[in-house]
């Protein structure tokens, strides 16, 4: 369900999907995906509201997605043997992300 949260970074109310909830001593923090900005943010539980009326029917501008069966790769350099091989990585490196964004443009 889409709700409305106040984003401290953007300084405005935004439509969001709640992805996670972390309860602490001072209150709960919600991990949210802003559906009109394609950003993830953390919001306190006081800054969330129910989305009312016709605003709930407006389609999202962004959807969270992933590349099917595409795994990140990186260049592994062995300085002792003076070799370099491409192998699996735990996360995408910055150069790969920038290259993918240029392809999308």
UniProtKB/TrEMBL annotation:
Protein's UniProt keywords contain DNA damage: no
Example of a GO biological process term: germ-line stem cell division
Transmembrane helix in keyword set: no
EC identifiers of the protein: 3.6.4.13
Molecular function per GO: ATP binding; hydrolase activity; RNA helicase activity
Reaction(s) this enzyme catalyzes, per UniProt: ATP + H2O = ADP + phosphate + H(+)
Domain Tudor: 2-68
Keywords on record: ATP-binding, Helicase, Hydrolase, Nucleotide-binding, Repeat
Alphabetical list of Pfam families matching this protein: TUDOR (PF00567)
Broadest EC class assigned to this enzyme: hydrolase
PANTHER family assigned to the protein according to its UniProt record, in alphabetical order: ATP-DEPENDENT RNA HELICASE TDRD12-RELATED
Name used for this protein in its record: RNA helicase
Gene responsible for this protein: Tdrd12
